[in-house]
Here is the input.
Amino acid sequence: MIIYKNLFMIRDVSIKGLLFPKIYTVHLSNNESMISLMMHRSQLYVEGVTCLEILISNHYEETPQGLLTLNGKIYKIDEYEEAFQIFVLYYGLETIITLPIKFRSAFEVRKPVSILLFKGEEVKL
Here is the structure.
C-alpha cells in the first residue's frame, strides 16, 4: 500500500568514491519531509530534472512506467517529536527518509519498503 506521496525538489547531488563504482547521494526535500538517496551511477537518472514525485510503500512494488523503484528493508527507525527517520538498505546502499510522525505506524524494522521515483516538472539545468 502506498503510504506517502509527494513532490520533492532535488537540493544537491554529491559523489563518493574515487574509483568505480561511484556512489551518488541525492538530497531531496519538500515542506514536510527530507530524503537522502544513495545510488550507483546506473541508477541515477536525475540529470536535467529539478523535481521528483516520490511514492513510499510499506511493501515491495513492481516497477511501473516510472523512473526507478528501490526495494529495500528497514534496519532502523529513529523517532523525534514531530518526525521520524527510516533507515533503508538496498543493494548495500543506504537511504534515509524523514517523514511526519503521523505516518510512523505504517513502518516497522526488518519490514520491506519501496521507494518509487517519477519525474516531476522537468527544467533544463
User: Anything to note?
Assistant: The first strand starts at residue 2 and ends at 16. The mean pLDDT is 84.
